[in-house]
């Protein structure tokens, strides 16, 4: 990564061709959940050199840096996403200041989607009202489960039912879109527990739900507890059952899948920022460890907040390394991402072998026949359970 962050020739030309988004990473959490290995730090883990208080200013400096780097006629921003960590551990006026810098430097496109993730315990009606007034349009709460003993295995600090309150406050304050994250497959979670979580999530009236299979990440407290035999490892067949149960409950409530782990009510409920990632858009990711992509060049920032602060303060790129994707790598990536979407992957992306694999997937009940005739590979419900294997064959 060159210290000035400059991009290879050609990358900038792509900016005018596709939607452009900004991701802002907020690397702070009050406590660390036992399953999570995101790039986030509690006060005790942070050490010196980086503080929550000074963070908005650093992120704003990176936004300005991005504006200088991306040229004289930067694209307007169609989506902004504040993720973490727990963005709502910054006071609303800190998040508002960063959003205002995005608008000032690049300009928000009319109707831009502006999302923040939030831990349910980290907001109240007042802070949500302040975020709405500052221009946020969408809020995504980490609910994970509605069941006490499941939340406790996940080391979640919030009480069941808090997400319903949060969703109600968000709507009362005028948020157009509310999303919830759920996790299934937690050790000790029964089919009935999962159903309770699904129903509780739907009862909030959220227009978007993400449901993730629990991943046991190396180095987490959860992984250690499973290794010691204190908790059972998630079981693949059970995971598949949970996924099918989610898809059935969401479908009956009018939320349709549009990406393997994401369901939305109508087109307006879909997360446009994530769709931008999945459809080859360009984005700048600001903050420690954030990833960016512009015109086939992908880079990622240094991970630790102190190292990040040092780079930003010295006026050099916080980028740690980058890769420039070749045409063939970009094609494989397009297949990988598009196949996970309900819109599916155009067969024009596939090699001859890939097209044969698509026909086999239809014969095996993993892809939809009529869609293939119309030129796209669209996974069936069973295909979604085996998506990785299907993608492997399509990209052979
Ligand atoms: C950055 S967090 C969301 C916001 C906030 N930090 C919270 O947890 O409430 C993004 C989501 O990733 C999911 N996630 C994190 N670690 C995971 C894991 N090991 N397996 C499955 N999902 C995970 C959780 O559903 C979480 O809500
Ligand atoms: S799941 Fe969310 S709240 Fe928990 S440690 Fe990870 S980022 Fe923080």
Pairing-aware structural class of the strands and helices?
A: alpha/beta
Unreliable segments (pLDDT under 50, ≥5 consecutive)?
none
List all distinct small molecules, including ions and cofactors, that are bound in this structure.
Answer: S-adenosylmethionine, iron/sulfur cluster
Choose one word for the global shape. globular
- Termini separation: 31 Å
Main sheet: which strands, in order across? 7-8-6-5-4-3-2-1-9
| Total strand segments | 14
Please, what is the average pLDDT?
Answer: 95
- Helices and strands, in order, run as EHHEHEHEHHEHEHHEEHEEEHEHEHHEHH
The portion of residues forming beta strands comes to 15-25%
**Helical percent range?**
25-40%
The main pleated sheet reads as: 9 strands, mixed
The helix tally amounts to 16
What's the alpha carbon Rg, rounded to whole Å? 21 Å
Summarize the structure.
The chain has helices at residues 43-46, 55-69, 92-105, 125-133, 148-153, 162-172, 191-203, 221-227, 236-252, 272-278, 305-313, 327-339, 352-363, 369-373, 381-385, 387-394; strands at residues 20-26, 77-84, 108-118, 138-144, 177-184, 208-213, 256-259, 262-264, 282-286, 291-294, 297-301, 319-324, 345-346, 376-377. It has 16 helices and 14 strands.
């Amino acid at each position: 990564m060159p210290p000035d962050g400059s991009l290879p020739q050609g990358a900038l030309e792509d900016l005018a061709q596709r939607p452009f988004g900004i991701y802002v990473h907020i690397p702070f959490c009050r406590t660390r959940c036992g399953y999570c290995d995101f790039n986030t730090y509690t006060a005790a883990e942070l050490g010196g050199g980086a503080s929550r208080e000074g963070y908005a200013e650093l992120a704003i400096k990176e936004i300005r840096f991005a504006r200088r780097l991306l040229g004289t006629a930067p694209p307007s921003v169609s989506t902004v996403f504040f993720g973490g960590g727990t963005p709502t551990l910054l006071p609303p006026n800190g998040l508002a200041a960063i959003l205002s810098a995005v608008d000032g430097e690049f300009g928000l496109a009319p109707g831009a989607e502006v999302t923040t993730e939030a831990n349910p315990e980290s907001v109240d009606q007042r802070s949500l009202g302040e975020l709405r007034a500052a221009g946020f349009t969408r809020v995504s709460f980490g609910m994970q489960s509605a069941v006490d003993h499941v939340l406790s295995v996940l080391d979640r600090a919030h009480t069941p039912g808090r997400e319903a309150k949060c969703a109600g406050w968000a709507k009362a304050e005028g948020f157009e879109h509310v999303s919830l994250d759920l996790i299934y497959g937690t050790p000790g979670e029964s089919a009935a527990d999962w159903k309770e979580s699904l129903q509780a999530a739907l009862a909030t009236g959220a227009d978007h739900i993400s449901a993730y299979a629990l991943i046991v990440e190396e180095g987490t407290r959860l992984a250690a507890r499973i290794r010691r035999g204190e908790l059972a490892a998630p079981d693949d067949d059970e995971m598949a059952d949970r996924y099918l149960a989610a898809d059935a409950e969401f479908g009956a409530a009018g939320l349709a899948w549009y990406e393997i782990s994401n369901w939305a009510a109508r087109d307006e409920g879909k997360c446009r920022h994530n769709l931008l990632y999945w459809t080859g858009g360009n984005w700048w990711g600001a903050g420690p460890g954030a990833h960016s992509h512009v015109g086939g060049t992908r880079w990622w920032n240094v991970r630790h907040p102190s190292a990040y602060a040092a780079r930003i303060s010295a006026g050099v790129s916080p980028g740690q390394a980058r890769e420039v994707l070749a045409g063939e790598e970009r094609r494989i990536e397009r297949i990988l991402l598009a196949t996970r979407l309900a819109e599916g992957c155009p067969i024009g992306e596939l090699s001859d072998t890939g097209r044969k694999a698509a026909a086999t997937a239809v014969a095996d009940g993993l892809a939809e026949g009529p869609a293939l005739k119309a030129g796209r590979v669209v996974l069936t419900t069973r295909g979604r359970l085996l998506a990785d294997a299907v993608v492997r064959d399509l990209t052979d």
